[in-house]
Design a protein that fits this description.
281 residues; alpha+beta; two-stranded antiparallel sheet
């Protein structure tokens, strides 16, 4: 049995993308039922393989940084964040992530994922080994690695399960924020959050609410995206209270969530919710 390794290993340098490029993949590895008799048309088999592969890799991954990048670059260019908002950012566990955009800057091409590499990686997942089988290696990602990648504290409480809630219940705790930003919305979707952020930026309103909306956008589009592009109301109790926000082990939640989804969707990789981009780092 091959030895399990982490995605980053001091004894075996190279990113997961490099390992994928080193491995060989053959379209014939896609499993389909075929008649093995001599009269089977080999061209028909090849066409069936191509059709299945096309279906397997249709759609796009939900996890992406494009939406966050666009907003953060605009905020940076307009320099609209108040001192209170900047202070609020630095009190969150995502401060290193936000400051990557606001202070150091980041090139857009550096946040683009390789869909083909993700396809190969996720479809290589072994249920038996609970790991990705790339060539003759078994690769895993750990909460410790996610902590290093995003510069977040590993210790803390579990995020899941998210408490069951609705807008009326959320209003009891966060009435001012919700009345200001989501009074006419029944769900918190990427579209509604982005629209509200755009309005605040146009008004050059860089207060704490802007930071909270950025947090929501980050959760919906990058750390915990789902196939519906919206957030459960119960998530607000974890995000809008700084004490609660800092009490959670976000690296563990991100890692466990994406790996749970990989186990469920590995046969249809582009339907995989969660922070799939972290798998390629």
């Amino acid at each position: 049995m091959t030895e399990k390794e982490h995605l980053t290993n001091s004894d075996d340098e190279g990113t997961i993308s490099e390992k994928l490029n080193e491995a060989s993949y053959d379209s014939e590895e896609i499993n389909i039922e075929t008649d093995e008799s001599d009269d089977v048309d080999k061209y028909e088999i090849q066409n069936r393989l191509k059709r299945q592969k096309k279906h397997l890799y249709s759609g796009t991954y939900r996890c992406n940084l494009d939406a966050v990048y666009k907003v953060m670059m605009t905020v940076k260019e307009k320099n609209i964040l108040s001192s209170e908002a900047k202070s609020y950012i630095n009190k969150t566990p995502f401060k290193n992530f936000f400051n990557m955009f606001l202070t150091n800057g980041i090139e857009r091409q550096n946040i683009r994922k390789s869909a083909s590499n993700l396809d190969q990686l996720i479809t290589s997942f072994s249920i038996k080994e609970k790991a990705f089988k790339i060539g003759n290696k078994l690769l895993k990602i750990t909460p410790e690695e996610v902590s290093l990648i995003f510069g977040m504290n590993l210790s803390g409480e579990d995020l899941f399960p998210i408490p069951t809630s609705n807008k009326a219940t959320a209003m009891e705790s966060f009435s001012e924020f919700l009345t200001t930003n989501f009074e006419e919305n029944d769900i918190i979707s990427q579209k509604t959050v982005t629209r509200r952020l755009k309005k605040m930026i146009e008004e050059e309103n860089g207060n704490e609410d802007l930071v909270k909306l950025l947090l929501l956008l980050l959760i919906i589009t990058f750390f915990f995206p789902n196939n519906q592009n919206y957030m459960q109301w119960g998530f607000l109790s974890k995000l809008l209270n700084l004490k609660k926000l800092n009490s959670i082990s976000w690296p563990r939640a991100i890692c466990e969530n994406v790996m749970k989804n990989v186990q469920k969707y590995y046969a249809n990789p582009r339907s995989t919710p969660g922070c799939t981009m972290v798998l390629l780092v």
